[in-house]
Design goal:
There is one protein chain. This protein is α/β, with parallel strands linked by helices and about 290 residues long. It folds into 2 domains: about 5-30 and about 65-155, Rossmann fold, CATH 3.40.50; about 160-285, Hypothetical Protein Tm841, Chain: A,domain 3 (2-Layer Sandwich). Helices cover about 40% and strands about 25% of the residues. The protein is built from 10 helices and 13 strands. It has helices spanning about 15-20, 45-55, 65-80, 100-110, 125-140, 145-155, 170-175, 210-225, 245-255, 270, and strands at about 5-10, 25, 30-35, 35-40, 60-65, 85-90, 115-120, 160-165, 195-200, 200-210, 230-240, 260-265, 280-285. The strands form 3 sheets. A 6-stranded mixed sheet has the order 10-9-8-13-11-12, with helices on both faces. A hairpin with a 2-residue loop joins β3 and β4. α5 (about 125-140) packs antiparallel against α6 (about 145-155). The longest helix has 16 residues, at about 125-140.
């Protein structure tokens, strides 16, 4: 077992194969659909959820794991694994209560397991941007890196890891109250594709395109401006029930950039509910 355990939550949307191979611990978000309380990726899976969401007239409510959920996970790790150090990595605290819940759980541990050291990190990002930080942390942990080195690695990634995303509509973000600084786009979306990103932990509009293809070209132009022509990146092509669109983005990007590692990842229901089926985009960071 690695010296440092890595914890995250289902919103990171990391493919299951990587969760297993990298020994990543994760806690599910909650989805309240009418009178049902569902556990993200546990009692509700992606395909079933997106099929239903495409017909929904009222969005379900999502809720981050509570302090007790994280406390249980931290205690289980302490009891079952040969480690007394944990790094816990979460989506932006400006869009979710997960970070605050994890901090509260850490405080509770002082009473029960005072020797367990837990570092809580707010990524100020979402989706596979959070996921990439978790993946890199888990790889460092498996390589035997010390906790402070792992934390430093994640902190280095926060300012350079970026999400670029488009959707058929901003209806789901608007209905769910997660539109952030992109509110001005609502109401003008009949024939355009919005391009959104995350800045300082808040969803922000980057522009609009007249087609998906134009939106994808805007994405690759943006990344190329940041890293240079054929610049080296690690990239995740993310989608919500739109794997064909993720494949299209992959083709465009890999013609113009050096993608030293690429992943196709589908958003978890708790995250995809806010953007809706048809969402597609990238989460990337530059590498040397």
């Amino acid at each position: 077992m690695p010296k440092v355990a890595v914890v995250t939550d289902s919103a990171a949307s990391i493919p299951e194969s990587l969760i297993e191979s990298l020994n990543i611990h994760w806690v599910p978000y909650y989805i309240h659909r009418g009178k049902e309380t569902l556990l993200d990726l546990v009692t509700i899976k992606r395909a079933e959820f997106y099929n239903w969401l495409s017909t929904a007239t009222v969005l379900p409510q999502t809720a981050s794991p509570g302090p007790g959920d994280y406390l249980k996970t931290y205690e289980k790790i302490a009891q079952e694994e040969n480690t007394d150090e944990i790094v816990s990595i979460h989506m932006t605290s400006k869009g979710s209560g997960a970070y605050q819940a994890a901090v509260a759980a850490k405080s509770m541990l002082r009473e029960t397991i005072p020797n367990l050291r837990v570092e809580i990190i707010d990524t100020f990002n979402v989706s596979m941007c959070q996921g990439w930080m978790v993946i890199e942390a888990a790889r460092a942990a498996l390589a035997g890196k010390a906790l402070h080195d792992i934390v430093n690695r994640v902190m280095e990634m926060i300012p350079i890891t970026q999400m670029l995303q488009t959707a058929d509509t901003l209806k789901y973000l608007y209905m769910g109250g997660r539109i952030g600084k992109a509110k001005h786009l609502v109401g003008s979306l009949l024939n355009i594709k919005p391009l959104i990103t995350m800045q300082d932990g808040v969803i922000t509009a980057l522009g609009i395109a007249r087609s998906r293809r134009k939106a994808y070209e805007m994405m690759v132009n943006k990344v190329e401006t940041t890293v240079g022509k054929m610049g080296k990146i690690k990239i995740a092509y993310v989608h919500a029930a739109a794997v064909e669109e993720a494949e299209k983005i992959k083709t465009i990007f890999e013609e113009r950039l050096t993608c030293v590692e690429s992943i196709i990842a589908e958003l978890s229901p708790a995250l995809g509910v806010h953007t809706g089926p048809g969402t597609a985009g990238v989460c990337y960071f530059p590498v040397k």
